[in-house]
Design goal:
By secondary structure, the protein is an alpha/beta fold. It folds into 2 domains: 178 residues, Phosphoglycerate mutase-like (Rossmann fold, 3-Layer(aba) Sandwich); 102 residues, no CATH class. The protein is built from 13 helices and 8 strands.
């Protein structure tokens, strides 16, 4: 569960299960507590704290119900502690080969030089490309990537200053570096290679925790109105793939480089800034229904799950448990 939680509909609203990196929505909890959990990195704790403050501002009556932010890296920063995954990222030659293939394309070198020559003389850029400054950048691509990264950060901070990074990197160049980012995300956090599940099976514990909260509410063993969880893209990507959310499911065979023409995966759509996966639990008599919001939009669960009626975004909790293998048929 995680960041944004809403109340809506004509039946009592129960804990919204959310995972995210941001969001603020109106919420009413009555006397039931709201649990706020984050990965331990300061920016994540800050996001959780800011969200809780926004929730209190939007709905002052819930302030007494919101607990202090607590941290849980086993749940929300699992990619760092998973030994098999870390071995895959650091040592699997297929990952290094795919990323190097994209990075070493002629277009990458050309775009990097184009960016840097707006800032430095061509002679100095050639020295950077030759590796004359290894303490700072291995080559011109690494240096241009630093400019791109700064540009991306400032786009998320428009109120923090009069940024002018567009003077140094144009939209086409930024888009190419965005593609290189997607290559890394695809192989290290997304669907990756056909037949492998190393990049997303580690999200099992997080998915179990989401189901566990809903099941506890159904069984009367949870006092929570909501549990709000704040994490990172490295956890959102595998959870999205495990849930089989749009754009996160198509793998590629070994030796086929990820390109936009060959795969629908787009990091900016699967885990954008402020990414959010939210489950809302509703009760009608003895029936419990679940609706999912993905990046704030109603989203169907995977195709093998059957909603309460064709075209609906509501599923019985029993159906989702069975569909995701938590209970026998």
């Amino acid at each position: 569960m995680s960041p944004s939680v809403r109340s809506s509909g004509q039946v009592p609203n129960y804990p919204g299960v959310c995972i995210s990196k941001n969001s603020v929505l109106p919420f009413s909890s009555g006397a039931q507590p709201i649990d706020v959990v984050a990965a331990s990195q300061q920016r994540t704790v800050d996001s959780a704290t800011a969200f809780a403050h926004g929730l209190e501002t939007a709905s002052p009556g819930v302030a007494p119900a919101i607990g202090a932010v607590r941290t849980d890296d086993a749940l929300l920063y699992f990619h760092k502690s998973n030994a098999d995954y870390q071995n895959y990222v650091k040592n699997d030659p297929r990952v290094a080969a795919a990323e190097a293939e994209a990075r070493d394309e002629p277009r990458t070198h050309a775009v990097a030089r184009s960016v840097l020559t707006r800032i430095f003389t061509p002679a100095f850029v050639s020295r950077v490309a030759a590796g004359d400054y290894p303490a700072e950048f291995s080559d011109e691509i690494a240096a241009a990537e630093a400019v791109y990264s700064l540009d991306q950060v400032t786009r998320d901070m428009p109120d923090e200053g009069p940024w002018q990074l567009n003077h140094y990197i144009n939209p086409d160049e930024a888009a190419w570096f965005g593609y290189l980012d997607d290559v890394t995300s695809f192989y290290e956090n997304g669907p990756a290679f056909a037949g492998d599940d190393i990049t997303y099976k580690m999200a099992d514990g997080l998915l179990d925790g989401m189901f566990g909260q809903l099941e506890a509410k159904r069984d009367g063993t949870s006092p929570l109105a909501a549990e709000l969880r704040f994490t990172h893209a490295e956890e959102i990507f595998p959870l999205a793939t495990l849930l089989q959310l749009p754009g996160s499911t198509e793998q590629l065979p070994n030796g086929t480089l990820f390109t936009y023409a060959d795969d629908p995966f787009r990091g900016a759509q699967v885990a954008p800034m402020g990414a959010n996966i939210q489950w809302d639990l509703y009760r009608s008599h003895d029936t419990y229904l679940v609706r999912m919001l993905y990046n704030e939009r109603e989203t169907a669960f995977k195709p093998s799950c059957t909603p309460i009626r064709k075209g609906s975004y509501f599923y019985t909790l029993d159906e989702l448990e069975h569909c995701y293998g938590r209970t026998p048929a």
